[in-house]
Design a protein that fits this description.
- It is a single chain.
- The chain is mainly α.
- It has helices at residues 2-8, 20-35, 57-69, 73-99, 103-114, 116-121, 128-148, 151-164, 171-185, 187-192, 194-217, 220-228, 237-249, 253-258, 277-290, 295-307, 310-313, 328-351, 355-386, 395-401.
- The longest helix has 32 residues, at 355-386.
- It is globular, with a radius of gyration of 21 Å.
């Protein structure tokens, strides 16, 4: 309920304008559904645009939403709210499946409900909003299927990774990396159940064919990526240094706890997570190695830590980039959840008194809510005015006249 309120309150007015990225997806999907062609007169899986073809998942979600809410900001942004709430649930499920218990998953879901990174990207009606829930769902179904012996769910997870590529421009990179990492980590299972692996690869291959066809036949699919690619001038000492600087910038306190992304369309100029989470995340790293967790789960989290800034580091455009590194949001919540859950469990075990761990849990929640209150003042009252230029105010009036 808290997560829904933070994502839905005043959604029509904050962010203060329907940006072109929000409009193009919805209007293109509506045009295809009602006229059989997108705005450029084409009929293809990806929507035509002046810069690059746009993945279709969010646009069609917004069109379905318009059947309920009518045309306007609410219909365009309602799917983002829904996807954001799904992410909260999936963070809980993924954490529980990887590490068991209830404390850590609940804390992780709580953090996902309240951090600025998740709140903002659950209020903007564009492609990244659809990316994270599908990636998390693919991860969950694979780990769940393997852990519970549900072969058909494991096969389905391969298909979920393929569907993810149709959500966001950076999604193919992460879908491939996460799928490859899980196959390697659970290689003994797949060597034993080779038919499951073969069926999964077949399903994934069938579903990804339209994407591959678009990549091979659509020149604009590459033009923007080539312009902003960190190694566009080749692999040189300078480009390697730039990549390293871009990569490291996503671990710096200035990005995580202070200023976040400098682009006001990507946040309110605050940190992506709260300072109060720092000791909890550090504790989570300690418990990751000292709590006897399954080595496969530990390996997957370490992989996740290593790759979440990758798409942003490979582009030299607005770094650090909160959108291209969005996979870091659930990761940090999971680490914070492991730390909070581990500290509460340790205190309960060492004291034997329920009052102490309860007090610690309450302290973590209250301090997080205090941080949320400070962020809310900034985000819901100051940000709409300060970010009006970044959102190019005026599109809404044009859209209303169409």
């Amino acid at each position: 309920m808290l997560g829904f309120f933070l994502r839905a309150v005043n959604i029509s007015e904050n962010p203060p304008e329907l940006f072109s990225d929000e409009l193009i997806n919805f209007v293109s999907a509506r045009s295809v559904a009602e006229k059989g062609r997108d705005l450029h007169g084409n009929l293809a899986l990806y929507f035509s645009d002046r810069t690059e073809p746009r993945p279709p998942v969010y646009g069609y979600s917004a069109y379905v939403s318009s059947m309920i809410f009518g045309d306007g900001p609410i219909c365009i942004r309602a799917p983002a709210i829904f996807f954001g709430l799904v992410c909260i649930v999936l963070v809980y499920l993924v954490t529980r499946e990887l590490f068991g218990g209830e404390r850590a998953p609940l804390f992780a879901a709580f953090f996902m409900a309240v951090i600025p990174w998740s709140i903002h990207y659950s209020r903007v009606g564009w492609e990244p909003a659809a990316f994270l829930p599908l990636l998390l769902l693919a991860v969950y179904t694979m780990v769940y299927g393997i852990g519970r012996g549900k072969k058909w769910i494991t096969v389905l997870s391969f298909g979920m990774f393929s569907v993810t590529v149709y959500t966001y421009q950076a999604a193919p990179l992460y879908a491939f990396l996460f799928l490859a990492a899980l196959v390697i980590i659970y290689r003994r299972y797949f060597l034993r159940e080779w038919k499951v692996f073969a069926a999964g690869c077949f399903l994934a291959g069938i579903l990804v064919i339209p994407h591959i066809s678009t990549v091979l036949n659509e020149d604009m699919m590459h033009s923007r990526a080539e312009r902003i690619f960190t190694f566009s001038e080749g692999v040189t000492p300078e480009s390697i240094g730039t990549f390293f600087e871009n990569y490291v910038s996503h671990y710096k306190p200035s990005f995580l706890f202070e200023h976040g992304d400098s682009n006001l369309r990507h946040g309110a100029g605050t940190g992506t997570v709260y300072r109060v989470m720092l000791p909890l995340m550090l504790a989570g790293l300690v418990y990751l190695f000292k709590s006897g967790f399954d080595r496969k789960s530990v390996a997957f989290i370490l992989f996740w830590i290593a790759v979440f800034p990758l798409a942003a580091a490979l582009t030299n455009d607005g770094v650090p980039h909160a959108t291209r590194s969005l996979t870091g949001a659930p990761l940090l919540c999971i680490l914070g959840g492991l730390g909070a859950g581990g500290l509460v469990a340790t205190l309960a075990r060492r004291t034997g008194r329920p009052a102490y761990p309860t007090a610690l849990a309450a302290l973590i929640v209250v301090s997080s809510l205090a941080s949320l209150a400070l962020f809310a003042k900034r985000y819901y009252y100051e940000y709409p005015k300060q970010s009006c230029g970044a959102w190019e105010c005026g599109h809404r009036d044009i859209f209303a006249a169409l």
